Amino acid sequence: MISIDSKKLTEFAIIAGTIVSTYYLMTMPSPDAIGANFDKKAQAKSDHNVKRILQDNPGLAKNLQSLNTYEKKILADVFIPNEKSTRFNDIAGIDDILEDIYENVIIPLQEYGTDKKHLNHDLQERFGHIVENGLLEAPKGVLLYGPPGTGKSLTAKAVATECNAAFINISISTLLSSYYGESSKLVKALFTVAERLKPCVIFIDEIDSLFKTRSNTDHEVTSKMKSEFLSLIDGLETDGGILMMGATNRRTDIDEAFLRRMPKQYKIGLPDKEAREKILSLYIQNIPLEKGLSIELIAEYTSGFSGSDLKEICRNAVNNMIKEYRRLPSSQKHDVRPLTAQDFGLNNLPDFLD
Ligand SMILES: Nc1ncnc2c1ncn2[C@@H]1O[C@H](COP(=O)(O)OP(=O)(O)OP(=O)(O)O)[C@@H](O)[C@H]1O
Ligand SMILES: [Mg+2]
């Protein structure tokens, strides 16, 4: 007679239960799975973006036909720069970097689709081969790295505006959030949409969250997506038109294989005193300061502040002043008081003020 060991039976039941539920989770679409329920808000945004792109660029109508669901989802994250979009002159204190990006990235991208007109006839005759060999093309990848709040995302956006390119700002969580098997279709769609919209900048913020140095603990979906990504970057055509931009606070954590595909890398560090002055000027240039206070002095006492911190103290200062201004009786509304050191939260200044 077979004796049934109740402990073994329980163990067997637990193992069987785990296998069945894992299989269920892997195969059943999640409620926000793209195919069935491509979220209504994203769908509306995607349709809106397609309309806007076509308004500005009717010539793209052919390229935007028969989009698949994944491409539509990516199109929800496309930004088309307009006159109000961030430009290089909205960024201060990193002039050298912007100049280098202008020469090496913007000009070649702007010239995408043209016959490289900047080479005059004489140079074309002598060095035409450098055009054919692709030496004048924009690099495929640009990495911006450095501490938080230093203007990396801002710069990426401005690059798209300056070269009048579509800007796809995709987050790793969008790519990874979908259910099993969808991620790689979304990654493919990212590149096919970029191809349809050329010239186009694909911007991936916090790239370290995907391209951390490979480890054995990588989830299968993540490592598959990584290799897929790398091969799609390799497959980008050499005639330019698509630029990959990444930003990170932790360059040292990034996989070598990815870094190799980002030939242009710019470190954007915390601003020094001169750069802080430029950033402060950008925000409060025309606003009067109390006697004895100057932009130079504020810059001196904000060592270690990022561009974002500086913008924040300017915002606070201006808001303090405006709050009081609003409370003034209308007869005194012409008296806008100057900004004080205290408005900027600078209470440690030497005793220079009257
Ligand atoms: N150099 C700068 N000139 C003008 N504004 C700046 C500069 N740096 C930062 N800012 C301001 O700070 C905000 C935040 O900057 P941004 O998002 O580009 O930082 P980031 O480097 O991408 O930071 P993170 O690493 O946290 O993503 C910008 O929108 C801008 O308003
Ligand atoms: Mg950023």
Strand order of the largest sheet: 1-3-4-5-2-6
Order of helices and strands: HHHHEHHEHEHHEHEHEHHH
- Class computed from helices, strands and strand pairing: alpha/beta
Question: How many β strands by DSSP?
Answer: 6
Low-confidence stretches: 27-33
Protein name: Related to Protein MSP1
Pfam family, one: AAA
InterPro entries: AAA+_ATPase, AAA_lid_3, ATPase_AAA_core, ATPase_AAA_CS, Mito_OM_Translocase_MSP1, P-loop_NTPase
Keywords: ATP-binding, Membrane, Mitochondrion, Mitochondrion outer membrane, Nucleotide-binding
Describe this entry's structure for a reader.
There is one protein chain. This protein has about 350 residues and is an alpha/beta fold. It contains 14 helices and six strands. It folds into two domains: about 35-265, Rossmann fold; about 275-330, Helicase, Ruva Protein, domain 3, CATH 1.10.8.60. The protein has helices at about 5-25, 35, 40-55, 70-75, 95-110, 120-130, 150-160, 170-175, 180-195, 220-235, 255-260, 275-285, 295-300, 305-325, and strands spanning about 80, 140-145, 165-170, 200-205, 240-250, 265. Helix 4 (about 70-75) crosses helix 9, helix 9 (about 180-195) packs parallel to helix 10 and helix 12 runs parallel beside helix 14. The chain is globular, with a radius of gyration of 27 Å. The N and C termini lie far apart (about 100 Å). Magnesium ion (MG) binds next to helix 7. It is found in: Mitochondrion outer membrane. Belongs to the AAA ATPase family.
